[in-house]
Amino acid sequence: MIRKWLVWLGLLGGLLAIGGILAINSIWVKTMDVRHTASAQSLDKISLKSTFLTLHLHSSDDDQIYAHLRGRTTKLSEPELQLSTEGNRLVVEAVEKNPGISALGPRNTLALHVYLPDNRFSEITMDNVFGKIILHSPMEADRLQIKNALGKVWLSGFQGHELFVHTELGPITIDSLHASAADIRSNAGDIVIGQWDEMDGNNIVQTTRGSIQVGVGMLPESLNISLISNGYVTTDLGIGRYEGTHEDWRTWGIRSIQGYYGDARPDTPRLRIKSDTGKIVANKL
Predict the structure, then answer these.
(1) Which residues, in sequence order, are CB contacts of 197 under 8 Å at separation 6+?
(2) Would you write out the chain's pLDDT as a tens digit for each of its 285 residues?
(3) Is there a contact between 206 and 253 (Cβ–Cβ < 8 Å)?
(4) Under a CB-based contact definition with an 8 Å cutoff, are residues 206 and 224 in contact?
(5) Parallel, antiparallel, or unpaired for β 89-96 and 79-86?
(6) Could you give the angle at the alpha carbon of 186 between the alpha carbons of 183 and 189, nearest 5°?
(7) CA 176 to CA 195: how far, in whole Å?
(8) pTM, two decimal places
(9) SS3 assignment, position 17
């Protein structure tokens, strides 16, 4: 009986402590505006990293890279903006020394804004744990890699050879995509691609829990298409040669559309779209 009361007192104490931190963080706030600048002339790659902030990527009008850590946060928070170079790569990182306190700040608007000259980098990587990743301007690079554990990803546009976007929990939205090959996945979140052109390689769009909507602009001469889901599947991409649906999939309620647009060739680009639970819509614009 005493042990039970001790457990309840411990839980009550924890709740009171969290409530006290929330109350302090909602009242005791500060505004930050930290700015760093770096030249992009000798750089070929850039990495942006954060843990508990939203990452904003913009295009700049010159050859400079601007990193701004700005917004409102609790006074108990201890964020830092760090820039370092690793060969021809610049690493821009927002570090929070007190992440638990920062995460409990209901009035926290602190975010990392980075401004890059367009069409200068062979590789751009963005990594976040808790927060959004937003590309306000269409970006051009050989390779763009984005990883976000908890939070949405939104790209106004990307043009390049390879796109890699993964989220654990959060939707993915890409307004315009011009990429030879793309790997876009979410464990839990809807995926929307407004317009997709230039499918020259192997492409996969996949979510475990969510729906997928893809608008296709320019189709290659030949495209191998595979759409698989437990839910509703539809397309008007003009598949001329269908591949058979597995009978055992029908037993489990899995629906698929598989076939070719154009002629089947050994070097035909591939488009794989898969959702375990949601609907799939892939239509020509």
Answers:
(1) 177, 178, 216, 217, 218
(2) 555 544 444 454 444 444 444 444 455 788 889 999 999 988 999 999 998 889 999 999 898 999 999 998 877 778 899 999 999 999 999 987 766 555 545 567 889 999 999 877 999 999 999 889 999 999 999 999 999 999 999 999 999 999 999 999 999 999 999 998 999 999 999 999 999 998 888 999 999 999 999 999 988 888 999 999 888 888 888 876 555 554 444 444 567 888 888 887 878 899 999 998 899 999 999
(3) no
(4) no
(5) antiparallel
(6) 140
(7) 5
(8) 0.85
(9) helix
Do you know the residue count of the chain?
285
Nearest of 153, 151, 155, 154 to residue 169 by alpha carbon: 151
Type of residue found at 280:
I
The residue type at 133:
I
The pair of structure tokens assigned to 285 is: 């614009």
| Separation between Cα atoms, residue 10 and residue 68, nearest integer Å | 41
Tokens of residue 204, six digits: 């996969």
Kind plus residue range of the DSSP H or E element containing 248: helix 247-251
Looking up tokens 């993915």 gives 172
Token couple for 275: 């959702």
